[in-house]
Design brief:
1% strand; mainly alpha; 14 helices; two-stranded antiparallel ribbon
Length: 302
């Protein structure tokens, strides 16, 4: 269970990074796994080639962050001035390019088989690493909440609702979109670094589109544009995957558990179109409005 919760915390960070793009800026990315994979491979390669100390762990994260900043800035400059689907396709193209590099550059990445590596001694204890990822999740949530509540965050929200009106008000939309892209890329790279460390293994699958789809599902199930929603969504998705896979080993009917998982996702999204958090908020608001309406009718009748 400790490993399961650690995975939930890591993917919650990844899903929050995706929510900055989709929920707060209205940008769809099909290749957000690009930054997740960069974080995983940068950390793994550095730790594999050097002493397994905290210094090299931090160096791996620093390299991942710098790479994420440069690549997200480049992709943003090339595509965000155009329609949103250009960004989606360009990130997908870059993620496929990095997947091919990871598979073919065997001297560095061991190709499609991936490689195992050692981690710093203080992170080998699963209990310590569990708290490390939990603290990371809390701190990143606070930082992203502060960012989305700032004036920049409010402009991003305005862009997602009506980009032309935001431009008419004098805001340089491209600059704000690039800021969102860079922040999302950096946070995703950090989650990828944590993911590699918890497995102590990395392979090209971190660059696959399935990784991006996981983040998308977690964000949509939890609630787009809420930050807390992706945390709930990651918990729901990871728990469901874990228990369905366990059922698959015990009962033959659940052997093809991904099919049941897909059906469950469809039911949840149809039943909660605004996600868990969004549906809860709209229900609370509706009840308050109904209560005020009833109070108004009572006063009017009196």
């Amino acid at each position: 269970m400790l490993i399961l919760f650690t995975q939930i915390f890591i993917f919650a960070i990844f899903a929050m990074s995706y929510d900055i793009l989709l929920g707060y800026t209205g940008i769809v990315s099909f290749g957000h796994c690009l930054f997740f994979g960069i974080g995983a491979y940068s950390t793994a390669i550095i730790l594999n080639a050097n002493d397994n100390t905290i210094g090299f762990f931090l160096l791996g994260i620093a390299i991942a962050v710098i790479a994420a900043v440069l690549i997200s800035f480049l992709i943003g400059m090339l595509s965000l001035r155009l329609q949103s689907h250009f960004y989606a396709m360009l990130t997908l193209g870059f993620s496929e390019l990095f997947l091919i590099i990871a598979e073919k550059w065997r001297s560095m990445t061991q190709g499609g088989d991936g490689f195992t590596f050692q981690v710093p001694e203080f992170l080998r204890d699963r209990f310590i690493f569990y708290f490390f990822t939990l603290i990371s999740l809390v701190l990143i949530y606070i930082l992203l909440r502060t960012f989305t509540s700032s004036s920049v965050g409010k402009v991003l929200k305005a862009i997602s609702q009506n980009q032309k009106r935001t431009e008419a008000l004098g805001f340089k939309v491209l600059h704000y979109k690039i800021i969102a892209s860079v922040i999302a890329g950096v946070v995703a790279a950090y989650s990828g670094a944590l993911y590699a460390v918890t497995l102590r293994f990395v392979d090209p699958s971190v660059f696959s589109i399935e990784t991006t789809l996981d983040a998308l599902l977690m964000t949509m199930i939890g609630g787009v544009g809420t930050l807390f929603g992706p945390i709930l969504g990651s918990g729901a998705v990871e728990f469901i995957q874990h228990y369905l896979s366990e059922l698959g080993t015990e009962y033959s009917i659940f052997e093809r558990w991904p099919i049941f998982l897909g059906l469950l996702y469809i039911i949840v999204i149809l039943g909660f179109p605004k996600g868990i958090v969004g549906t809860f908020k709209s229900t609370v608001i509706k009840r308050k409005e109904n209560r005020k309406e009833k109070e108004g009718l009572l006063k009017h009748s009196a």
